[in-house]
Amino acid sequence: MQPIISVSNVSKTYASGLKALSNINLDIRRGEIFALLGPNGAGKTTLISIICGLAKQTEGTVTVDGHDIVGDYRAARSLIGLVPQELHTDAWETPWATASFSRGLFGKPKDPAHIEKVLKDLSLWDKRKSQIITLSGGMKRRVMIAKALAHEPKILFLDEPTAGVDVELRKAMWDVVRSLRDAGVTIILTTHYIEEAEEMADRVGVINKGEIVLIEDKALLMQKLGKKQLKLHLQQPLAAVPDSLGAYRLELADGGRELVYTYDTKGERTGITTLMNDLAQAEIRFNDLNTTQSSLEEIFVSLVKQ
After folding, report:
1. Is pLDDT larger for residue 102 or for residue 290?
2. What stretches of the chain show up as alpha helix (H) in DSSP?
3. Sheet (strand 80-83) strand order
């Protein structure tokens, strides 16, 4: 299937000489939730601005559903809804008026039924006549999404959509994003909350210093790069790991009451069986054990450090 967004050999150099992006190649699949992760200054917002036609690349091409974002700007831009990180709304307007006006900006005919559906889907219907200045931060963020959806885009960019939103509202907005994906909207998400990407994304891209470091299916990424840890809760605390167990690179935790073994999920053998035998020979006994899988956040931090 043809990607709905195709970024080919895109670079961006500002007049100051700063190279914000270097030879970016990225395809976004139709109907997926794609999470773009990267530290501050990595180039996330620059890349989104170029795809959305708000900035022009120095080199390369971007197509949106087959339309070149430069040569066929209006057709390409009409397919995109953008929710920027900063809240940009007329504080004295209402959600209804804001969404309706945004639809008109894209040359779409009036459709009160669609605006009503968008506001209801975002739990804004009861606030449709309230001035935006009176709304909470989470509600204002939802108004931004309503604006972006008013013209019925096929693609929605969410740049830090839950910044400044409490945990309960954040999870509610995750449900909104999933429902949009289920309705056929392609979602591109940037976030500092990596659990957000871990919870929702189908694929993950990592950008650092203006270059794409990695693009991978989320589940496959966590399988390939994830580490597992076996934690043994000891009957008697240890002051140090015996030299006879040095090959396992064990770590002591919780004041010597826990022994931690980190192993590679890709390996043919985990080494756990031989570890248990060697622990018995060293007369180290434990009451309980549990395993933990490394999170997407730990994988991300490792990639950026590399």
Report:
1. 102
2. 44-51, 73-77, 95-105, 112-121, 137-149, 167-182, 194-200, 218-225, 272-281, 296-305
3. 80-83, 155-159, 186-190, 33-37, 203-208, 211-217
The number of residues making up the chain comes to 306
Q: What are the residues whose beta carbons fall under 8 Å from the beta carbon of 280, sequence distance 6 or more? A: none
Q: What pLDDT is attached to residue 187?
A: 95
Question: Do residues 220 and 52 lie in contact, with contact meaning Cβ atoms separated by under 8 Å?
Answer: no
pLDDT tens track for 161-175: 776 666 777 777 788
Pairing type for strands 33-37 and 186-190 reads parallel
On whether the CB atoms of residues 147 and 102 are closer than 8 A, the answer is yes
pLDDT band (50, 70, 90) for residue 38: confident
* % the chain with pLDDT above 70: 88
CB neighbour list of residue 183: distance below 8 Å, 6 or more residues apart: none
Domain with CATH 3.30.70 in the chain: 227-294
Closest of 209, 130, 140 to residue 173, by C-alpha: 140
Q: What is the pLDDT of residues 177-197, one digit of tens each?
A: 888 899 899 999 987 677 777
pTM assigned to the model: 0.74
pLDDT at res. 100: 95
State the DSSP string of 228-289. Answer: EEEEEEESS--SS--GGGGGGT-EEEGGGTEEEEEEETTSS--SHHHHHHHHHHTT--EEEE
User: Could you tell me the fold of the domain covering 227-294?
Assistant: Alpha-Beta Plaits (3.30.70)
Q: From CA 65, how far away is CA 36, in angstroms rounded?
A: 19
CATH class of 5-222: alpha beta
Report the alpha-carbon distance of residue 1 to residue 27 in Å, rounded: 11
Residue 94 near residue 102 (C-beta atoms within 8 A): no
